[in-house]
């Protein structure tokens, strides 16, 4: 059922944007300032992605076949598809109201209320599909039905559903993330409301009793953590707590014992290259770029497990994210500044198309302004729905960005909770936040 997985991933992105817009319009009411560029980018994304592609995929494939198999579903499908048809005119009305507010012809309060009504309708629509449609589809559609639907959703040559269209939508999503006010982070933990209380969390990584040693010294002492899809998890702790050893154990370059389940597969015994092929990619501590090689060659090395046909397009995406790397792409990587090398290390990891990105001390040794820039990059990746483990000594910045966090001390997990809970924990504040 690849189609359902794709639709649910798209719903998560739409939900993240909705949560973020709600935060932005609350700030607009407080500050009396219209975030025109951000709201325009959101409306562009909804128009091109949701109304132009997402709804069309559902209508033409999943909903069409479901009508044939379940007569009782017709009233519900009629309502959902009517909401699909009304989408463009509702967006057009929001655009007009945004223009009127910027021009002073309408109030900020009227604009924010209109956006709230629209977002509430979209969230109710998503909930209805996930609650009422997917379970029914799983029951009544045949394997042949799913084969037909999945083939349509996975067709890379299709101009609407194919890889070129997906690249366009990723760029639109990244634009939304980059234009969001600094105070707002996408992918808030409240996005989890999409899952019913009875459903199981969508766990991407589950680690149980992981241990690792350097000779006779045990560096990790039975660590157990989990990471859900689209989640940013922070590992915080003092130097020597085991953060780097843990990430190296996950990526396969550090001997370990214990159990690692990744995307439903036990990878505990797999080599590092096999783990990377499954989607675990690491930006290591200290950058570790190949200094004599060019910047572009460093990036291409990150894609050595990927099909050659997609490498050029992925390079351009990295250059869009980090323009300085494109400007200097023919120069040796060793000529870059520390901050630029960190961008290169992150870009190299992204070239592997990670399902899970491991970031080990990305702010280490950087000036404060560059630290902020690195965390903005992490925020943008989080906004795109990427699953991230962020190991950082800069505990406040890491926990402020993270959905959840784990505190490590001498190779053991001593505390866990949401990022906000850990920031507010007196023990964490005293030991790691200087408060």
UniProtKB/TrEMBL annotation:
InterPro entries named among the record's database cross-references: AAA+_ATPase (IPR003593), ABC_transporter-like_ATP-bd (IPR003439), ABC_transporter-like_CS (IPR017871), BCAA_Transport_ATP-bd_LivF (IPR052156), Hemerythrin-like (IPR012312), P-loop_NTPase (IPR027417)
Matches recorded under SMART domains: AAA
Keywords: Amino-acid transport, ATP-binding, Cell membrane, Membrane, Nucleotide-binding, Transport
UniProt domain ABC transporter: residue ranges: 205-435
Keyword DNA repair: no
Protein family membership: Belongs to the ABC transporter superfamily.
Protein name: ABC transporter domain-containing protein
Species classification: Bacteria, Pseudomonadati, Pseudomonadota, Betaproteobacteria, Rhodocyclales
